[in-house]
Amino acid sequence: MPSIYDLKPAFQNLLRPLCGRLAHWGITANQVTIAAVLLSLGMGAAIVWQPHTAWILLFLPLVLFVRMGLNAIDGLLAREHDMQTPLGAILNELGDVVADAGLYLPFALLPGVMPSLVVIVVLLAIISEMTGVIGVQIGASRRYDGPFGKSDRAFAFGIIALLLGLGISADVWLNIVLEIMLAFSILTIFNRAFQALKEVK
Predict the structure, then answer these.
(1) Is the backbone of residue 3 left (phi > 0), alpha (psi -120 to 50) or beta?
(2) Positive or negative CA dihedral for 35, 36, 39, 42?
(3) How far apart are CA 147 and CA 32, in angstroms?
(4) Distance between CA atoms of residues 162 and 158, nearest Å
(5) How do the pLDDT tens digits run along the chain, 201 residues long?
(6) Distance between CA atoms of 67 and 99, rounded to whole angstroms?
(7) What's the pTM?
(8) Alpha-carbon distances, residue 169 vs 104, 109, 146, 159 (angstroms)
């Protein structure tokens, strides 16, 4: 199924010259991974600090875009500049899950949002990433299948944050969108499991 993740190779091509400079300056892939997590947690903390201040949410799309860039950069540094390590693999997988939780769980505190829906969407996001990793355990590749992977979640939450930040009230529409995200997350979990099993047959 199509996913925004499919655009990653083109995005990496744009960042490749910057990666070369970072490697020359001694910046490691693990440092970039940790920076992405800290950036996400910082943005999440800002939302928790001022959940009733809508304009803070306008920063979230920018944070998500920078985080996406950092995630692409750490992968390029690891693969193309001989920085792949077991610790890096752990940080990469755990970092994505921690960053997602830190960024999206604070949405449960926003006025007009059904907190349980946000929590379930984040929980399913964690399960979908774990399902992707399990593919490696059974001899398949790490699965990134959609329709609602990490990049798709970032796009969805980024649009929501932009609308709320511009003053659009969280109403029934937002809870409906969260329910759709929930359904897509479940579909992603099954799709990743199916594709992993199909790969090892």
Answers:
(1) beta
(2) negative
(3) 27
(4) 6
(5) 555 666 667 777 788 888 888 888 989 999 999 999 999 999 999 999 999 999 999 999 999 999 999 998 998 898 888 888 999 999 999 999 999 999 999 999 999 999 999 999 999 999 999 999 999 999 999 999 999 999 999 999 999 999 999 999 988 999 999 999 999 999 999 999 999 999 997
(6) 9
(7) 0.90
(8) 18, 14, 29, 14
Which of 126, 155, 128 has the alpha carbon at shortest distance from 4? 155
Amino acid present at 48: V
Q: Which two tokens stand for residue 128?
A: 């979908």
Phi, psi of 84, deg, nearest 5: -75, 125
d(CA 92, CA 180): 27
Distance separating alpha carbons of residues 38 and 59, to the nearest angstrom:
15
Tokens of 60: 């979230």
- Write down the residue that tokens 């992405």 correspond to: 36
Both tokens of 71, joined, read: 């995630």
Q: Domains in the chain and their CATH numbers?
A: 4-195 (1.20.120.1760)
What are the structure tokens assigned to 126, written together? 């964690």
Give all strands (DSSP E) within the chain, no chain letters: none
